[in-house]
Amino acid sequence: MDPRSRVPTLTDGVVTLRAHTDDDVESVLEQSLDPASLTWTNIPIGYTRDDVKRYVRELLPGGWETGREWAFAVEVAGTYAATVLLRDEGEGRAEIAYAAHPRSRGTGSVDRALRLLLAWGFSPESEGGRGLRTVIWRAFVGNWASRKTAWRLGFSCDGTVRDAMVYRDTLVDGWIGTLLATDELAPRNAWLDVPRIVGADVVLRAHAEHDAERAQQACSDERTAYWLGSLPTPYTLEDAEAYVRSRPEGMATGTALHWAIADPATDDLLGSISIMDLTGQAGPEVGYWAHPDARGRGVMTAAVRLAVRHAFIDEVDGGLGLDKLRLVSAVDNTASRRVAEANGFREGGIERLGTVCRDGRHDTVVYDLVPADLRVS
């Protein structure tokens, strides 16, 4: 009996899940050699057509025969689009995995396929499913495409597990999350996109890898390091690279929106601005720092103006729809306070010893801003 005959055919009318066939070999090879696949999976370097044939003819059917994993080819309009699978972990648990052909990425076909896969996996065995209770998602830290797919399906992201996953010949940090049979297949929280906002003097954009060198320069600057007392010292390029890599986390959890402040002509990093604590009890807060090159040019005042206007724009118009913003500054940080006051922030009070500077705790002044202030400022 051909093990591939065990594979059910599932469809929603747009995508079809079926057994892999020899007709898929060329597409699976293209998928396996794609740079994104090589970066985020353990597909062997130098994978060949013969390797793919063995994968399609032996390894995948063998998973069905032994019950260790259940893999499907995803077909759209008669063409191979992806591979999706559930890997049995026992006791009603399975791990989900998915890999898309480059032509299928961003089309929504993998999401549709995974919904079919999950519905089948959670269905009782008496109805042809696997009767799963828990599906586990894992990904290497930094694989934002996989994480966003899991987010759309309702998976939690329960944190980072250090050195928990094998990547080729080393251990790397991994993300882990779960989806229960009783969970809704829908996001658990907002995922914020970083809009590119172009002003006359500055551009707000997403952080990029090439920002790390200038971020390291800024955070090594004596003045910046003094006011941001919790920064590591010395502040290394590795610290800056970690900072840049961490910026999407706030957006993925719906808790913060981070922009790089860039020069419109050169795209050089001039600073960073964030709207933080979007889900905190104290309310959303604006925070910022500047590269030494940006000082005395009105860069930060212009960047804050763009950011707070976006914060107050209604969500239906692409903004955050906030009704209030906070801003805190060390009482003696006159440059930061000038930026706040130039943008209409109103002083609300003093918190004693509320911030940590390089030489210890300083009193903090607390500002707030509401849309009415912005309109008249």
TrEMBL record:
> Its domain of life?
Bacteria
Protein name as it appears in the record: GNAT family N-acetyltransferase
Q: Where is the N-acetyltransferase domain?
A: 15-172, 202-373
Work out whether the entry's keyword set contains Transferase. Answer: yes
- In the UniProt record, which is one GO cellular component term? cytoplasm
- GO function terms (MF aspect): protein N-terminal-serine acetyltransferase activity; protein-N-terminal-alanine acetyltransferase activity
- List the Pfam families: Acetyltransf_3 (PF13302)
Q: Which organism is it from?
A: Nocardioides marmorisolisilvae
Question: Is Transcription included in the keywords of this UniProt record?
Answer: no
User: Which InterPro entries does its entry note?
Assistant: Acyl_CoA_acyltransferase (IPR016181), GNAT_dom (IPR000182), Ribosomal_N-acetyltransferase (IPR051908)
Q: Which UniProt keywords apply?
A: Transferase
